[in-house]
Amino acid sequence: MDKRFWICGIVVGAAGLLFGFLVHGLLLRGEYQALAALYRSPEQANAQAAWIVPAYLLLGLAMTWLYRRMPASDGIDLARGARFGLAVALVSYVPGHMLAFVAQPLPLSLMLRQVALDLVAMVLLGMLLAWLQPHRRALAAPP
């Protein structure tokens, strides 16, 4: 793994953390608070919060690794990145939320909002990866 891999992975992980905060910390916060009895207490949640950063770092590195396994494209192809993000969402977040809905007494409306918002976030992360071009070996052509 070269320097570009690590930079792209960390940037995508940081963006994923930001999207996660926007989706789950802001947009869905009220719905989660209304169902507080189903979740960890704030003290318990805060004690486990250190797992958030490595989880998003792993997401960024794994997405970068998978994206680099695809054949390189000519230049920036945002549509390709969007399709990649969609595929990653369909094998991770979407079934994860659906399975959590089966196991936990959450409202269908919450699960559908989680799926929709995380789907958008993953498509945007895929587009970010396409823009970062993790296949590219140098930032600029040598003089």
From TrEMBL:
Assigned keywords, A-Z: Membrane, Transmembrane, Transmembrane helix
Membrane-traversing stretches: 5-28, 48-68, 80-103, 115-132
Superkingdom, natural source: Bacteria
Protein name stated in the entry: DUF1761 domain-containing protein
